[in-house]
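Good day; I would like, with your permission, to put a structural problem before you. A protein sequence and the C-alpha coordinates that stand for its backbone fold form the material at issue. Thank you for your consideration; the sequence and its C-alpha coordinates are set out here:
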Amino acid sequence: MKNSWVSQWLGRLALVLLAAGWGLIIPLVQAGPAVGLLAAASASPAHCPVLLNHTFERLQDEKPQSLCQYAGKVVLVVNTASFCGFTGQYKGLEALNTRYKDQGLVVLGFPSNDFSQESGSNQQIADFCESTFGVQFPMFTKTQVTGENASALFKQLTAQTGQKPRWNFHKYLIGRDGKVIDQYSSLTGPDSKTLLSAIEKALKAKP
Protein backbone atom coordinates (compact mmCIF):
# COMPACT_ATOMS: atom_id res chain seq x y z
CA MET A 1 0.00 0.00 0.00
CA LYS A 2 2.79 2.34 0.97
CA ASN A 3 4.60 1.79 -2.30
CA SER A 4 1.36 2.21 -4.24
CA TRP A 5 0.63 5.53 -2.49
CA VAL A 6 4.15 6.79 -3.16
CA SER A 7 3.85 5.84 -6.82
CA GLN A 8 0.56 7.71 -7.13
CA TRP A 9 2.00 10.77 -5.35
CA LEU A 10 5.08 10.80 -7.60
CA GLY A 11 2.86 10.45 -10.65
CA ARG A 12 0.72 13.40 -9.62
CA LEU A 13 3.84 15.47 -8.86
CA ALA A 14 5.19 14.71 -12.33
CA LEU A 15 1.91 15.88 -13.90
CA VAL A 16 1.99 19.09 -11.85
CA LEU A 17 5.57 19.83 -12.91
CA LEU A 18 4.76 19.04 -16.52
CA ALA A 19 1.74 21.36 -16.46
CA ALA A 20 3.83 24.08 -14.86
CA GLY A 21 6.45 23.63 -17.55
CA TRP A 22 3.86 24.01 -20.30
CA GLY A 23 2.52 27.05 -18.49
CA LEU A 24 5.91 28.69 -18.86
CA ILE A 25 6.50 27.55 -22.42
CA ILE A 26 3.16 28.72 -23.82
CA PRO A 27 3.63 32.42 -22.85
CA LEU A 28 7.11 32.32 -24.34
CA VAL A 29 5.79 30.89 -27.59
CA GLN A 30 3.00 33.44 -27.60
CA ALA A 31 5.48 36.23 -26.95
CA GLY A 32 7.44 35.41 -30.11
CA PRO A 33 4.97 36.93 -32.62
CA ALA A 34 4.32 39.84 -30.28
CA VAL A 35 8.01 40.64 -30.18
CA GLY A 36 8.09 40.37 -33.97
CA LEU A 37 5.19 42.76 -34.27
CA LEU A 38 6.86 45.27 -31.96
CA ALA A 39 10.04 45.08 -34.03
CA ALA A 40 8.05 45.60 -37.23
CA ALA A 41 6.23 48.55 -35.72
CA SER A 42 9.48 50.18 -34.67
CA ALA A 43 10.84 49.71 -38.20
CA SER A 44 7.73 51.09 -39.89
CA PRO A 45 8.13 54.28 -42.01
CA ALA A 46 7.08 57.70 -40.82
CA HIS A 47 3.48 58.75 -41.18
CA CYS A 48 2.59 59.15 -44.84
CA PRO A 49 0.99 62.50 -45.78
CA VAL A 50 -2.39 62.26 -47.52
CA LEU A 51 -0.96 63.86 -50.65
CA LEU A 52 1.64 61.10 -51.00
CA ASN A 53 -0.61 58.23 -49.98
CA HIS A 54 -0.90 56.90 -53.54
CA THR A 55 0.55 54.03 -55.53
CA PHE A 56 1.66 54.24 -59.15
CA GLU A 57 3.34 51.77 -61.48
CA ARG A 58 6.99 52.43 -62.22
CA LEU A 59 7.59 53.35 -65.86
CA GLN A 60 10.42 50.92 -66.52
CA ASP A 61 8.80 47.70 -65.32
CA GLU A 62 5.24 48.67 -64.29
CA LYS A 63 5.80 47.47 -60.73
CA PRO A 64 3.66 49.25 -58.07
CA GLN A 65 5.46 51.96 -56.15
CA SER A 66 4.08 53.79 -53.12
CA LEU A 67 4.76 57.51 -53.01
CA CYS A 68 4.88 57.16 -49.22
CA GLN A 69 8.56 56.28 -49.66
CA TYR A 70 9.13 59.99 -50.36
CA ALA A 71 7.58 61.20 -47.11
CA GLY A 72 9.82 63.81 -45.48
CA LYS A 73 11.38 64.82 -48.79
CA VAL A 74 10.80 67.87 -50.96
CA VAL A 75 8.93 66.56 -54.01
CA LEU A 76 8.62 68.14 -57.44
CA VAL A 77 5.75 66.55 -59.39
CA VAL A 78 5.86 67.10 -63.16
CA ASN A 79 3.55 65.87 -65.93
CA THR A 80 5.73 65.12 -68.94
CA ALA A 81 5.53 64.30 -72.66
CA SER A 82 8.00 63.09 -75.28
CA PHE A 83 6.84 65.21 -78.23
CA CYS A 84 6.44 68.67 -76.80
CA GLY A 85 8.21 71.98 -77.21
CA PHE A 86 9.12 71.70 -73.52
CA THR A 87 10.47 68.13 -73.72
CA GLY A 88 13.99 69.50 -73.41
CA GLN A 89 13.18 70.27 -69.77
CA TYR A 90 13.87 66.61 -69.06
CA LYS A 91 17.57 67.47 -69.06
CA GLY A 92 17.10 70.30 -66.59
CA LEU A 93 14.88 68.18 -64.34
CA GLU A 94 17.51 65.45 -64.21
CA ALA A 95 20.18 68.04 -63.38
CA LEU A 96 17.92 69.45 -60.67
CA ASN A 97 17.33 66.01 -59.16
CA THR A 98 21.05 65.20 -59.23
CA ARG A 99 22.04 68.54 -57.70
CA TYR A 100 19.68 68.42 -54.73
CA LYS A 101 18.86 64.73 -54.16
CA ASP A 102 21.39 64.35 -51.35
CA GLN A 103 19.72 67.28 -49.60
CA GLY A 104 16.29 65.65 -49.83
CA LEU A 105 14.77 66.59 -53.20
CA VAL A 106 13.15 64.10 -55.54
CA VAL A 107 11.65 64.83 -58.96
CA LEU A 108 8.72 62.61 -59.94
CA GLY A 109 7.75 62.40 -63.60
CA PHE A 110 4.27 61.44 -64.81
CA PRO A 111 4.07 61.03 -68.61
CA SER A 112 0.65 62.02 -69.89
CA ASN A 113 -1.14 62.06 -73.22
CA ASP A 114 -3.71 64.58 -72.03
CA PHE A 115 -2.33 67.09 -74.54
CA SER A 116 -1.86 64.50 -77.33
CA GLN A 117 1.93 64.56 -77.20
CA GLU A 118 2.70 61.22 -75.54
CA SER A 119 1.57 58.40 -77.83
CA GLY A 120 4.23 55.77 -77.12
CA SER A 121 4.07 52.74 -74.85
CA ASN A 122 5.47 52.91 -71.34
CA GLN A 123 8.60 51.05 -72.44
CA GLN A 124 9.10 53.39 -75.40
CA ILE A 125 8.78 56.40 -73.10
CA ALA A 126 11.28 54.90 -70.64
CA ASP A 127 13.79 54.17 -73.41
CA PHE A 128 13.38 57.66 -74.88
CA CYS A 129 13.85 59.44 -71.55
CA GLU A 130 16.95 57.45 -70.62
CA SER A 131 18.67 57.37 -74.01
CA THR A 132 17.90 60.97 -75.01
CA PHE A 133 18.16 62.85 -71.70
CA GLY A 134 19.75 60.36 -69.30
CA VAL A 135 16.74 60.53 -66.99
CA GLN A 136 17.30 58.70 -63.71
CA PHE A 137 14.71 60.36 -61.46
CA PRO A 138 11.59 58.28 -60.72
CA MET A 139 9.13 58.05 -63.60
CA PHE A 140 5.71 56.42 -63.65
CA THR A 141 3.44 54.95 -66.29
CA LYS A 142 1.20 57.16 -68.39
CA THR A 143 -1.17 59.07 -66.16
CA GLN A 144 -4.22 61.23 -66.74
CA VAL A 145 -3.63 64.59 -65.08
CA THR A 146 -6.71 66.62 -66.03
CA GLY A 147 -10.45 66.11 -66.22
CA GLU A 148 -12.83 63.82 -64.36
CA ASN A 149 -10.60 60.79 -64.87
CA ALA A 150 -7.46 62.46 -63.60
CA SER A 151 -5.51 60.49 -61.01
CA ALA A 152 -6.33 61.18 -57.38
CA LEU A 153 -2.91 62.77 -56.89
CA PHE A 154 -3.43 65.36 -59.61
CA LYS A 155 -6.98 66.02 -58.47
CA GLN A 156 -5.61 66.83 -55.02
CA LEU A 157 -2.84 69.00 -56.46
CA THR A 158 -5.40 70.87 -58.55
CA ALA A 159 -7.74 71.31 -55.59
CA GLN A 160 -5.00 72.59 -53.29
CA THR A 161 -3.52 75.05 -55.76
CA GLY A 162 -6.59 75.97 -57.79
CA GLN A 163 -4.60 75.23 -60.93
CA LYS A 164 -4.71 72.10 -63.07
CA PRO A 165 -1.92 71.37 -65.57
CA ARG A 166 -2.54 73.59 -68.57
CA TRP A 167 0.17 71.91 -70.62
CA ASN A 168 3.00 69.43 -70.38
CA PHE A 169 5.73 70.02 -67.79
CA HIS A 170 3.49 71.77 -65.30
CA LYS A 171 5.14 71.57 -61.88
CA TYR A 172 3.93 71.20 -58.30
CA LEU A 173 6.33 71.65 -55.40
CA ILE A 174 5.52 69.71 -52.22
CA GLY A 175 7.27 70.46 -48.93
CA ARG A 176 8.73 68.05 -46.39
CA ASP A 177 5.45 68.25 -44.47
CA GLY A 178 3.57 66.78 -47.43
CA LYS A 179 1.77 70.02 -48.30
CA VAL A 180 1.85 71.89 -51.60
CA ILE A 181 4.11 74.91 -51.57
CA ASP A 182 3.35 76.27 -55.04
CA GLN A 183 2.69 75.39 -58.66
CA TYR A 184 4.55 76.50 -61.76
CA SER A 185 3.54 76.62 -65.40
CA SER A 186 5.45 74.97 -68.24
CA LEU A 187 7.15 78.31 -68.87
CA THR A 188 8.96 78.02 -65.53
CA GLY A 189 11.97 75.91 -66.40
CA PRO A 190 13.94 73.68 -64.02
CA ASP A 191 16.67 76.32 -63.85
CA SER A 192 14.28 79.17 -63.05
CA LYS A 193 15.53 81.32 -60.16
CA THR A 194 12.02 81.39 -58.75
CA LEU A 195 11.80 77.61 -58.66
CA LEU A 196 15.35 77.13 -57.38
CA SER A 197 14.77 79.62 -54.58
CA ALA A 198 11.58 77.83 -53.52
CA ILE A 199 13.31 74.43 -53.58
CA GLU A 200 16.26 75.61 -51.51
CA LYS A 201 13.96 77.21 -48.96
CA ALA A 202 11.87 74.02 -48.74
CA LEU A 203 14.97 71.87 -48.27
CA LYS A 204 15.98 73.91 -45.22
CA ALA A 205 12.57 73.47 -43.58
CA LYS A 206 11.95 70.66 -41.10
CA PRO A 207 9.26 68.02 -41.83
The longest helix spans residues 2-43. The helical segments are 2-43, 89-100, 122-133, 152-161, 193-204. The first strand starts at residue 55 and ends at 57.
